[in-house]
Amino acid sequence: MPDTVDALVPFSPDRPKTRLSDTLDPEERRAFAEAMLSDVLAALDGAGFTPRLLTTEPTGRDVPETVDDRPLTEAVNAALDAHGPGSPLAVVMADLALATPRALARLRGSVGASGGDGDGDADVAIAPGRGGGTNALLVRHPEFRVDYHGASYLDHLRVARDIDASVREVDSRRLATDIDERADLTEVLLAGDGAARDWLRDAGFGLDAGDGRVSVERARK
Questions:
Q1: Is residue 197 within 8 Å of residue 188, measured between CB atoms?
Q2: Does some domain include residue 48?
Q3: Which domain range does residue 151 map to?
Q4: What is the CATH number of the domain that holds 155?
Q5: How many independent structural domains does the chain possess?
Q6: Radius of gyration of the chain (CA)
């Protein structure tokens, strides 16, 4: 395995975090999405990945990017086709605000990537999200292609079985927690330590444990 591993980070700056529309206005949603992206890119860099944005429009960031406005499944599979066999490729979602280099190193180690935290030799490593999604993948099997429709975690297990690819699941709270809804902001304030947490604090968000269950509140807008 190479010392660094390429990683795709899908990002949609033109339609960010629509399920947070009851909490953040469009400009805020974009700023918060950009903050989470910064955290993910930093974590990938710290884990020995070389990130490339897979974006629906140019971002202006100092990161290599591929612009593709097709649906996620089609865009990622086109990137897998272009990447070609012979080296692993990760796909890591841009809203994993709790991701750390250590958590992502476990993903690397699951396929035996150099420098990874582990000694696995799987063809595909999967970090499932809550609710059946797929938050991160690391693929080294040349025939594996993604399917992000519906319960993609189950779909990816099926794809791996169909091509006789070995799979290792990465059970990680930090990689399982994608930030989509207001309730998810609580996790960022509780366990985040990067730009996304700082953005929420600056925007007036804080924790509320008044009813015995921790939730998020906004003191001002």
A1: yes
A2: yes
A3: 5-178
A4: 3.90.550.10
A5: 1
A6: 17
In a domain, 183, yes or no: no
Residues 6 or more apart whose CB falls under 8 angstroms from that of 84 comprise: none
Structure tokens at 57: 């429009």
Structure tokens at 172: 């990680």
What does the pLDDT look like over 12-70, one tens digit per residue?
998 899 999 999 999 999 999 999 999 999 999 999 999 999 999 999 999 999 999 99
Tell me if 58 is assigned to some domain: yes
Q: How many CA atoms lie within 13 A of 213 on its CB side?
A: 1
Q: Is residue 186 part of a domain?
A: no
Q: Each residue of 191-205: b (16+ CB within 10 Å) or e?
A: ebebbbbebbeebeb
- In order of 34, 50, 99, 102, the CA distances from 6 in angstroms are 21, 5, 17, 17
Q: Looking at the chain, how many residues does it have?
A: 221
Tokens of 218: 């906004």
Helices and strands (H, E) in the chain, number of each type: 7, 9
pLDDT tens for residues 94-133? 999 999 999 999 999 988 654 445 556 899 999 999 989 9
The pair phi, psi for residue 215, each rounded to 5°, is: -140, -175
